[in-house]
Amino acid sequence: MTANNNTLFQKRVSIEQVEESNELAPKFDKDGLISCITTDATSGEVLMLGYMNSEALEKTIATGEAHYFSRSRQVLWHKGATSGLVQNIVEMRIDDDQDAVWIRVKVAGNGASCHVGYRSCFYRKVPVGNRNENAPGQMDEQICLEFTEHEKTFNPLAVYGDVPNPTQL
Amino acid sequence: MTANNNTLFQKRVSIEQVEESNELAPKFDKDGLISCITTDATSGEVLMLGYMNSEALEKTIATGEAHYFSRSRQVLWHKGATSGLVQNIVEMRIDDDQDAVWIRVKVAGNGASCHVGYRSCFYRKVPVGNRNENAPGQMDEQICLEFTEHEKTFNPLAVYGDVPNPTQL
């Protein structure tokens, strides 16, 4: 073991250690973040893609509740602290090069995870494979997204009030 | 519609357009990339987290086969071109602020997606919620990852030969 005094995480020393060992040696990017895919433990649906800094990953592991780092607000974000929609971890996995985690969660309250009010952040479908036969690899027509959820699970204004919208153009 | 001459994508003009409309207006980060979560269409398992540049996203949409941008090699990457493990898209979704896509795929060949030889890149479990009762939020012991796949689906050396390992320390 290659201990790191500050955290639970090991220092990254070799590709073999990172890919093939049982040591947790996460790679944080140049902004200090690791990606986190969050899925519903029951339905398997992808709810959101979030980001964790070292502190958020440690707190998630220690408490069993999802903590993220908010890129728009630049603060540690205990998911559900405002909305009540806490995400309880059923399982956490990490990928081959340890620069991404996947958490399977049960969401408290009404089960929503998206600030727009939908259950999943991925509430729109992108049509694919609509080949143009005269020009393979080109699309025939303008892409039109299709909504997969038609009712919002909650009213964002009632839950978040005048907290600034995290979406950035 | 706010047409962009170069691509299938719309220019991002408002939060309402990005979150609530049927226009595809993806947000590429400062490296020109958008995140892509790839899950197995049948089992729901997360196979990998990849990245697409504008060209990769267009080709994925037009052909129905997953294309990524390889950050380690800095090239467009038609997944399966070397290994035969092509990912056929069953469904593509995009998230609220349009900076991430989720693709549900059927993988050709032996069904593997991970360069280490496993089916999923997320082949190790991170234990969570092991609270220290004397210091809530702190862990009791060293974290030890647990393998969820015990046999490799293919031999990476036989498939990739001496292509450099994409994992970076």
The main sheet of chain A comes to: 4 strands, mixed
Distance between the termini of chain A: 44 Å
Q: Could you report the average pLDDT of chain A, rounded to the nearest whole number?
A: 88
- Poorly predicted regions of chain A are 1-5
CATH architecture descriptor name of the domain at 4-116 in chain A: Roll
Shape of chain A: globular
Task: Count the DSSP helices of chain A.
Answer: 3
Most extensive interface between two protein chains, with residue counts: A-B, 70 and 71 residues
Report the count of strand segments of chain A.
8
Strand content of chain A: 25-35%
The quaternary state of the protein chains shown equals homodimer
Strand sequence of the main sheet of chain A, in spatial order? 2-1-6-5
Name of the CATH class of the domain at 4-116 in chain A: Alpha Beta
The sequence of SSEs of chain A as H and E is: HEEHEEEEEEH
CATH superfamily of the domain at 4-116 in chain A: Phosphoribosyl-AMP cyclohydrolase
Q: Percent range for helical residues of chain A?
A: 10-25%
Looking at CATH, which topology of the domain at 4-116 in chain A would you report?
Ubiquitin-like (UB roll)
Which structural class do you get from the secondary structure elements of chain A? alpha+beta
Query: What does the radius of gyration of chain A come to?
Result: 19 Å
InterPro entries (chains A, B): PRib_AMP_CycHydrolase_dom, PRib_AMP_CycHydrolase_sf
Pathway (chains A, B): Amino-acid biosynthesis; L-histidine biosynthesis; L-histidine from 5-phospho-alpha-D-ribose 1-diphosphate: step 2/9; Amino-acid biosynthesis; L-histidine biosynthesis; L-histidine from 5-phospho-alpha-D-ribose 1-diphosphate: step 3/9
Organism (chains A, B): Thalassolituus maritimus
Catalytic activity (chains A, B): 1-(5-phospho-beta-D-ribosyl)-ATP + H2O = 1-(5-phospho-beta-D-ribosyl)-5'-AMP + diphosphate + H(+); 1-(5-phospho-beta-D-ribosyl)-5'-AMP + H2O = 1-(5-phospho-beta-D-ribosyl)-5-[(5-phospho-beta-D-ribosylamino)methylideneamino]imidazole-4-carboxamide
